[in-house]
Inverse folding.
C-alpha cells in the first residue's frame, strides 16, 4: 500500500499540535510521578518531604534542614510549578539530598516499607501500559 502526499500542507495538518501534545504528556507524567513520590515519603518532622526539589536540565544539590512540610502540599505545588516549565526534550529531575533519603527509600520506615520512588515508578509504568 502506498500513500502520496500532494502538498506539504497535508503533513503540516497531520502533525499540527503533536509537539505540544507530547510536551503536555511529558509534563503530566512528571507531575503525577513527583506528586506520588512526595506524598509517599514517610513523615516524622516533614523534613524528608520538604527536601524534594524539582529542577530542569540538572539535578539539584540543595539540602535544607530547616524546611518542613508534613502535608506535602507546598512541596508538590513547587514541583508541579517547576515541571510545568519543562519543554519537550528537556530532562526533569526530582532530587532529595538528605543523607537518610536512601534509607527511607529502602524500607526503614513502617510508613513506606516498599519505598516511595520505586513504587511510584512502577505505578506510573503500569498506568502508561494501560494507556497504550
Amino acid at each position: 500500500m502506498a500513500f502520496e502526499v500532494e502538498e506539504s500542507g497535508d503533513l503540516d495538518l497531520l502533525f499540527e499540535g503533536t509537539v505540544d501534545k507530547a510536551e503536555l504528556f511529558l509534563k503530566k507524567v512528571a507531575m503525577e510521578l513527583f506528586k506520588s513520590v512526595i506524598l509517599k515519603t514517610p513523615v516524622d518532622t516533614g523534613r524528608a518531604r520538604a527536601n524534594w526539589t524539582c529542577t530542569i536540565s540538572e539535578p539539584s544539590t540543595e539540602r535544607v534542614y530547616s524546611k518542613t512540610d508534613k502535608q506535602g502540599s507546598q512541596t508538590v505545588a513547587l514541583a508541579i510549578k517547576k515541571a510545568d516549565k519543562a519543554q519537550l526534550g528537556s530532562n526533569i529531575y526530582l532530587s532529595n539530598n538528605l543523607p537518610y533519603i536512601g534509607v527511607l527509600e529502602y524500607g526503614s520506615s513502617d510508613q513506606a516499607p516498599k519505598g516511595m520512588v520505586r513504587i511510584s515508578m512502577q505505578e506510573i509504568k503500569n498506568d502508561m501500559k494501560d494507556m497504550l
Observations:
- The first strand starts at residue 53 and ends at 56.
- The chain has one domain: 32-131.
